[in-house]
Amino acid sequence: MLKKRRILFYGIVVAVLLFLLANAGFRTMVRRYGEIHKLKTDIAFFKRENMYLTREVYYLEHDASYIEHMARRELGLVSSGEIEYRFKKK
Asked: How far apart are CA 39 and CA 18, in angstroms?
């Protein structure tokens, strides 16, 4: 009796797995779940990047020293009267 129940249980489990794996709708649902997870991750990344860029735009519009800092960093500009030292990297 116990052996018949075990065989019936395993038979049902195999039938359910075959039904799910052979079902194109189930496979599509699993694939869509992965896509949704990736898109949520991308949205979180772009929200953080947007906050950073919004803050940078604010500083560029309101802080002259930040503009000077960016010009020095991005363009390598040097003010008159300053001496620039360059060191060779080994």
From this structure: 30
